[in-house]
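REQUEST FORM: STRUCTURE PREDICTION
Request ID: SP-0412
Submitted by: Lab K.M.
Chain count: 1
Length (residues): 359
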Amino acid sequence: MIKTTDADFEKMTPEDWDTLKEISSLEQETLSLLDTIKTGNIKLIHKHLETVFLPACKKSNSNRNIKQEVDEWVEEHSGVFFSTDIYRDLDIIDKKYISKLLKTLEKEGKVERSKDRAGKWRKVDNLRLPIKWWESSGDPIDMKLPLGIHEQVLIFPHTMIAVAGLWSAGKSAFCMNTATLNYNIFGDTIDYILCAEMGPNRYKRRLIEGGVNLDDFKQHVEVFEYIGGDLPDLIRPNKLTIIDYLAPQDEGLWKVNTILKDINDRIDDGIVMVAMQKPGGRDTAFGGDFSAMVPSVYIAINDGLAKIVKSKEFDEDTVGNPAGKIISFQLRRGFHFDSTDIWHRKEDTEGLTKYPKKY
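STATUS: Completed
RESULT:
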């Protein structure tokens, strides 16, 4: 039994009583106690504490499994948290007991104490997800890309394809052409996420200019407008998703790698194509090399020239590593790419012109 004296009450400020009300899970009993305190009758307050409030607290705590509640709270959270978050969310008064429970979880390897601030913790995310590689076919996907790029690279399930292009060099054309070349891929519709400034009227006009059967396109391609929020949330894991285009200026160009990784993490056996703006004079998009870390296939488009910047998978016996190969093209009828030569390396350009039969 907790004993109280007149001095105990005299030391308590109005803020102390507000805190008592805030942290107590027994709101009715607390309010009742506060009403008794307002009478100023010390004997009545003592009686209320000993016969009503403290027994109620004891009963309430005996019915709770604090350890289980804390374990479940930690399990449901990720990343960094503070012990004060637990006090507040679970309405627990005994801070020392919570500290003891967190130390136990630390010994079990479930949380880690921060070195830079007291009361700061991090949940250890050590979930192991085995890859059942033996259940996969090991075969590439029969996906087609403009300019015969699919003949130069191998595209497997769970692949990101990046297309970095200058302004008005053909990024959207590349995306729209890809959509029309791959109806029924994965036996499903294609998700086309429109992030560019192209509205429905311009989009339809491009389709008409490209000679597309509008009913067929509507049946096989679902076009969505990105209006904000987390772009990875729009990714469906086992489809072909085309993002036209990604522009992370507001978040910092160097963060493009994180955005691409979050998008890539959302796909299972599906494919994601991401178009991005790039400046002149280089092959990578705004964000530089950070934009090339995640994609397995990386294409650069300049005015009338396409280049395979990166390809993780290729047929070594037939084409070899196609990285660095270029091809010139003409863009016509909305989004059709007509090659004006063949895939070759820059150093072979002169020879290609002089001795075309050799190539």
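NOTES: The chain has three domains: 6-62, 66-123, 135-358.
Reviewed by: T.R.
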